[in-house]
Design brief:
It is a single chain. The protein has 14 helices and no strands. Helix 3 crosses helix 4, helix 8 runs antiparallel to helix 14 and helix 10 packs antiparallel against helix 11.
Amino acid sequence: MKSAPGYQGWYLAARRASWARNKPRAALMTERPADPVPQPRLHPGTVASIFALALLLAAAWRWSNMLLLGFGAILVAIALRAGASFLHERLGLGIKAGVVACALAVALVIAGIVAWAGPLISDQFRQLVGSLPAAWDQVNAWLSDSPVGQFLERRIETASQNGEAPAGGLPSIFGYVTGTLTTVVGGAANLVLLVTVAIFLALNAPTYRNGALRLVSLSYRDRARQIADELGRSLGRWMAGQALDMLLVALATGLGLWLLDVPLALVLGLIAGLTNFIPYVGPFLSGIPAVLFALTQGFDLAIYVALLFVVIQQVEGNMLMPLIQRFAADLPPALTVLAIVAFGSLFGFAGIVLATPLLLVSIILVKRIYVEDVLGDRQGD
């Protein structure tokens, strides 16, 4: 007969049972704790880069007028440099002498046009002011017989009864005249400054170009030089195509207005060609003075002039520009319109004038720097 286990056996059995129950907890206590998940931190260099970019954008916004003036001077310098290169190849004239010759030729042409057309424009303007009441009576009579005119007349009467009519009087007229004179004087001063800077840029283009490239790191300088050369070629081709388009529009408009016996037909044609530098908006701007001068001869002639501008712009937009864009820069029409609206809302009239070349520069920079160099996508080449 076996004896009952003693105290020692009972103690060992109890220890085994306790160890079995506490084994999972003990295992957890002896396991090595997991490493903490590293939290993302901004590197000081990244913070400095973001701050520098924000500071650069703020400075660009603060001095946007000066930057736009400089960009316009670059465009004029490219045109002067192209003319000087043409004279150098054809006549053997030096580049700097060619730049001076081109600048003097442009100045003489402008002075001749002003001297010839100034008195005529002044005389026609007096006739226009004298004929405006009769022209307004014709427009009012025409609107009174149409549903649209009757609707507008009711709206104007309602606005006048509700006190929504614009305020008049001598103070408002004086403020309008003062603001107009300030704008004209400021624009003339900016134009003189732009031409002066453009001449200096054209005379010493390699110096300014190499100085700008020295601001780029050595590892990227060759690539920056390639991009700068492409920008110069693209802007040059675009300006050549634009100049041809402006010339043809000026000739067609001047000839059409001359056939219609509109006063100052050649001057109005020149204005149409110059304003055609601004896509989509320029033709509308040039049509306003032409229609106003046509009103001095009658309301029917003004209608014919408006139709002439519509026909010329349709032919120019659908037939002429596609042919020119085969060797010039081909810009998407939708992006061009959006660029005009965006730059115009941001920078005013100067943004509207320079919207198309700014869009061209932006497309090239995004394609070469971001798409090709940052993303590494060179499939378009």
